[in-house]
């Protein structure tokens, strides 16, 4: 089913499929639906005062006392999250990769079942890619899972099954961009490297009263400022603390300034601008319609493996694709099956409609059952006839999972 839309957010927000992108120690860890945007930063308020340093358009420094106050708040109020109970670099690495572009609540069950299935680096390296993708199913950005698998293999071969405590060695591994590298080094190995995600960006913009939209273009300056206050004795806790503050208190909507431990240092709170910094983003949501073919033969269904590169690479799905202008849905269905499978269909019957919302796209899948007029020869590498039971062993995109759920509830097609 060829629907080339991003799963959650565009590449510019730090698509982990490319790497984890950005400047040193910056990334796109998920929060409570708070992610950076692409608007350019405009200006900071006023001119720097004597003795203040400027970091481009970012005015500093981060006030003295900020780190101490933040850390004591964090130690008293932090959430008890599974990856905070460990210093195991493997577990921290897995959690950090899962948390990119995904919320804490969504990640917890995946994290726990992942560790049952792949308890250490070697078990991940040994597993077939299909099992890894299946364990990742539903988290989106499947390139992250592919990179975990490839990096685990490389560390098993080249680093005796250990995650190196070394930035240069990590950066050579698949998926280890600046953010993931700094996350593993600071959280697991106690290296004083700051982390910047959307939550941190928002806290700092408010703390320093930087107007405009949240943008990764600020991250280099923020990293410089944070580098001067990150405590060498607890860099991991400091990084977690500022992200936690952004997630729980300095929230995107309705920041809880009256409860905030660093309120006395905060320029936005003093100015009453905390609700307008950063400038809210306007998201345009495109609507996409697609036709999907449940092709039936002897009680089995045809699924197809997506190409190795691109969106949802390597996942399995029902044939089908995006409706083009002027086409009826059945015309789309016939064209897509012809393009993907090289055969005509007959006995087309509407089954159901399945919706799936992404950050910038709303996809509606119109699902039809049908059969081949003349069954083509299909290479088993890319096509499989599966039962409703066996299809669950394949990594599937969320839309296909919903179609399988529908078929399972219906019991016959
Ligand atoms: S005082 Fe308000 S705006 Fe400032 S850091 Fe705290 S929650 Fe955010």
CATH superfamily of the largest domain: Hypothetical protein, domain 2
What summary fits the major beta sheet? Answer: 7 strands, mixed
Q: What structural class do the secondary elements suggest?
A: alpha+beta
Residues in helices, as a percent range: 25-40%
Number of domains: 2
Mind telling me which CATH architecture of the largest domain this is? Orthogonal Bundle
Give the strand content: 15-25%
Which runs of at least 5 residues are low in confidence (pLDDT < 50)?
4-19, 31-56
Distance between the termini: 20 Å
Task: Estimate the mean pLDDT confidence.
Answer: 86
The hetero compounds bound to this protein are: iron/sulfur cluster
What is the helix tally? 14
Radius of gyration: 24 Å
Q: Count the E strands.
A: 11
Brief digest:
With 413 residues, the chain is of the alpha+beta class. The protein is built from 14 helices and eleven strands. The strands form three sheets. Strands 5, 6, 7, 8, 9, 10 and 11 form a seven-stranded mixed sheet that branches. Strands 1-4 form a two-stranded antiparallel sheet.
Give a written overview of the molecule.
- With 413 residues, the chain is α+β, with helices and mostly antiparallel strands.
- The chain has two domains: 11-271, Hypothetical protein, domain 2 (Endonuclease III, domain 1); 286-410, Nucleoside Triphosphate Pyrophosphohydrolase, CATH 3.90.79.
- Helices cover 36% and strands 15% of the residues.
- Strands 5, 6, 7, 8, 9, 10 and 11 form a seven-stranded mixed beta sheet that branches. A two-stranded antiparallel sheet has the order 1-4.
- Helix 2 crosses helix 8.
- The longest helix has 16 residues, at 143-158.
- The radius of gyration is 24 Å and the shape is globular.
- The two termini are 20 Å apart.
- Bound molecules: iron/sulfur cluster (SF4).
- The site of iron/sulfur cluster has 15 residues, from helix 9 and helix 12.
């Amino acid at each position: 089913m060829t629907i080339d839309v991003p799963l959650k957010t565009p590449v510019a927000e730090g698509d982990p499929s490319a790497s984890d992108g950005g400047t040193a120690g910056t990334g796109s860890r998920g929060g409570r639906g708070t992610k950076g945007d692409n608007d350019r930063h405009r200006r900071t308020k006023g001119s720097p005062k004597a003795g203040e340093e400027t970091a481009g358009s970012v005015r500093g420094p981060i006030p003295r006392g900020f780190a101490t106050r933040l850390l004591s708040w964090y130690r008293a109020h932090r959430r008890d999250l599974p990856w905070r109970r460990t210093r195991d670099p493997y577990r921290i690495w897995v959690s950090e990769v899962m948390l990119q572009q995904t919320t804490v609540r969504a990640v917890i069950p995946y994290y726990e079942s992942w560790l049952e299935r792949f308890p250490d680096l070697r078990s991940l390296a040994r597993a077939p890619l299909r099992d890894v993708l299946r364990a990742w199913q539903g988290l989106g950005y499947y390139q992250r899972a592919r990179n975990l698998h490839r990096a685990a293999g490389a560390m098993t071969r080249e680093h005796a099954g250990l995650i190196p405590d070394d930035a240069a060695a990590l950066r050579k591994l698949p998926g280890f961009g600046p953010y993931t590298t700094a996350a593993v080094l600071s959280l697991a190995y106690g290296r004083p490297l700051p982390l910047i995600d959307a939550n941190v960006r928002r806290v700092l913009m408010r703390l320093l009263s930087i107007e405009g939209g949240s943008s990764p273009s600020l991250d280099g300056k923020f990293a410089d400022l944070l580098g001067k206050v990150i405590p060498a004795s607890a860099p991991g806790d400091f990084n977690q603390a500022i992200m936690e503050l952004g997630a729980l208190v300095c929230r995107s909507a309705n920041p809880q300034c009256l409860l905030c431990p660093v309120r006395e240092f905060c320029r936005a709170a003093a100015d009453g601008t905390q609700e307008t910094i950063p400038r809210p983003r306007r998201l345009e949501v495109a609507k996409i319609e697609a036709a999907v073919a449940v092709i039936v033969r002897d009680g089995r269904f045809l699924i197809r493996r997506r190409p190795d590169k691109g969106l949802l690479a390597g996942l399995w799905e029902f044939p089908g694709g995006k409706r083009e202008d002027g086409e009826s849905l059945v015309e789309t269905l016939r064209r897509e099956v012809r393009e993907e499978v090289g055969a005509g269909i007959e006995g087309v019957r509407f089954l159901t409609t399945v919706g799936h919302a992404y950050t910038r796209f709303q996809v509606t899948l119109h699902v039809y059952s049908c059969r081949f007029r003349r069954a083509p020869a299909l290479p088993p590498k890319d096509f499989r006839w599966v039962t409703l039971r066996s299809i669950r062993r394949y990594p599937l995109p969320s839309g296909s999972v919903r179609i399988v759920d529908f078929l399972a509830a219906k019991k016959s097609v």
